[in-house]
Every structure is written in structure tokens, then in C-alpha cells.
Input
Amino acid sequence: MAENLNYNATGSKCYGDNSGGDSQKRCGTYGRLYNWATAMGFESSCNSSTCSSQIQSPHRGFCPLGWHIPSNADWDTLMIAVGGSSTAGTKLKAKSGWSSCGPSGSGRSYSCEDEYEFSALPGGSYGSSIFYENFEYVYERGYWWSATEYNADYAYNRDMNYNYDNVDNNNNYKSNLYSVRCLQD
Output
């Protein structure tokens, strides 16, 4: 899928206040943000407990019929196909929509070539804890869930930063809200 998913699932958010206007415009461009359990089609309790026994291979989650949430292994396959994770960010980022990013020779600080028409866009994230609840990094970072659980509280994700060429393989709180890409079966 060459765009971040924009399915209006319960609990999903657009970067901003979700009240319309610019927030809805960002939803159309950058997609919605989802917690891991919502993306996977699980009960919200799966954000704080292990649900690995419920994960199918491939796992559809809330992707359209014929598509699935990419596993961490699926993301690894993509990284290998584009020449490795150390330069994958440059090759997968959309040519516009990132802060300080543009095609080679454009005078922008960092290169975004979109060589494979993956068109990765920085939808940012939404985090919530007892200390804060806020949106972060729109235009600067993109985070995408995988269908692979790390432990009761964490799942694997990939992320790209506007000022780095690589794609990171991380694990973060399943309650965070990140973008989703669906992979065709």
C-alpha cells in the first residue's frame, strides 16, 4: 500500500485535535494513527498483555480484505529488497511532505527519492502516559506498526526520521498511536 491507512477506527486520531479543519486535511495526507491492539483488531487489553496466541500469519487486523498488517519479518524483507535499512529511508520516503527533505539536487538538506513508490510520509505519533498526552513529530518522523509482538507492553515498529537515511527497527508501547501500512497477501 503506497499510503498510510486512513480508516476511521474507534480510538484512531489524526495529528492535531481531531475536530476538523487542518486535522482532517492531515488525516487525508498523513493517514490516521492507531494503537497496536486497534490495528490488529484485538481488544484494547492486548495493549498491556500478551496476545501473541491470537496473531495469525499473515494477520489481517483491520486491513481491507486481501491485505494484512506486515510482520517484523515482512518489514525485514522490504529492507533487504531496497538495499538495506541503512539507506532505506532515503529510498522509501515520499519526495515531499517531510521537513527539510527533497530529491537529490533540490537544495534540501536531506534526500527523499521514493525510488520504489512506497511514498512514506511522516504521520508522527501520539503518546499517552500518566505524565503527558500529546502528538509529536508530524512532518519529521513516521512510525509504522508491525504485527509482531515484543512482549506484553511492546510491539515492533519501523520508523523514519527526516534527517536520517536509515529505517529503524524498534519496539515501543502498544498504547502509542502510530501509522499503519497494509501489505497485499
In short: The radius of gyration is 16 Å. The mean pLDDT is 89. The longest helix spans residues 72-81. DSSP finds four helices and nine strands in the chain.
